[in-house]
Amino acid sequence: MGRTAGRSPEDTRRALLTAAGDAVRSRGIHASLDEIARFAGVSKGGLIYHFASKDELILELARAQLVAFEATIAAALDPADTGPGRLTRAYLRAVLTPDGDDMASMALITLLMTVPAVAELARAEAARLDAELAADGLPPDVLALVVAAADGMSSAPMWGGSARTPAHRRVVERLIHLTRRPELWEEIPWSTAPPADPRAPRTVSPGPRR
Amino acid sequence: MGRTAGRSPEDTRRALLTAAGDAVRSRGIHASLDEIARFAGVSKGGLIYHFASKDELILELARAQLVAFEATIAAALDPADTGPGRLTRAYLRAVLTPDGDDMASMALITLLMTVPAVAELARAEAARLDAELAADGLPPDVLALVVAAADGMSSAPMWGGSARTPAHRRVVERLIHLTRRPELWEEIPWSTAPPADPRAPRTVSPGPRR
DNA sequence: GTCTATAAATGGATAGAC
DNA sequence: GTCTATCCATTTATAGAC
User: Fold this and answer.
1) C1' of C2 to CA of B50 (Å)
2) Low-confidence winner among A17-21, B18-22, B53-57, B206-210 (lowest mean pLDDT)
3) In chain B, where does DSSP find H-type helix?
4) pLDDT of residue B5
5) Which of chain A's residues have a Cβ under 8 Å away from the Cβ of B93?
């Protein structure tokens, strides 16, 4: 318990952020400051010394997650790859990255988004990234497909699944190829124009109450 | 505020669930019982009469969301479509469905998942669906691609985006076609086998501390 | 079936000792 | 730089009236 031993303030801060992440992952956003503090081997008072309020702690944690995510993408950028779609390819590869640090960045941020400030931050970050991707030089449809697929794979852990299966790996490889040969995608025909299905109104039926 | 007027218990229950959804969407999981109750034109005591605890209310709400999601997929099933991949196609179409009820089912469930019981429920449901999809008769890679893309599109609203752009619509149509002609996907070449890139270690670099 | 009033708990934040 | 003790606000949940 007396834990001043050989730990710099930065170490403690980091330990607190890590602990906050673990606590939230396992107990949800309701994890109390006391819990988080003990998890980091610090008292509640000690925590408050480093982060003025719970919201600040959570926001800082979210920021760290987003920065880490950015870094993962940056690390996946291939310096030799300068053609259109290079950022998109990095985004795609980042999905398969064994984060090492945390099992499910996206899932965690999602939990943190119950704090309004975090939601704002995350959306701003997403918009920024979207804009960069839009300027990456790919045809809109191919971009939409690739980004959707990448997002879907990243969110898999939240639902208990994994995006690191062999099938996913192969999908990523093919999608990467697609970004280099967008015309391959354009060559795939439409299923049938939206209003062309004879029967089956496709409109949403009542839906089960509510 | 005397609100017994012409409303059956079931009506009240439903109103409470709707109010809970709205409240959580706008104020996060911290929305208080009092808020939710007033939102439904009922007092806190009234709420507790219908749902014994907040957790029960939230769990019930999650259940309703999942049921609605199931129903949307069921409604998107084309009775005339009996070939392999029919469920997958319905899953895909469901993404574009203008839910009418709620703007972002996925986003809401995500917020509700801070309650452990909800997380369990949602994961069980996801596993069930995954199993059904796996038995839908498509090659694993095509299935993985389509499901990832669909999931990515559903989660877009949470990040402030939309999955109802023309590009997304076209992507869905092409993906549907792909489920009917899986060989089209198999014909797209790999980018290059994982360990084939001369330079650029592609391993994750340190990542920004943490 | 719903409301008011109140009890009981939880948890965030402060002040000051060490 | 961290801990203990305490205060205070919020919110869940209960009891009993209407």
Assistant:
1) 10
2) B206-210
3) 9-27, 33-39, 44-50, 54-76, 86-96, 105-112, 116-134, 140-155, 166-180, 182-186
4) 53
5) 202
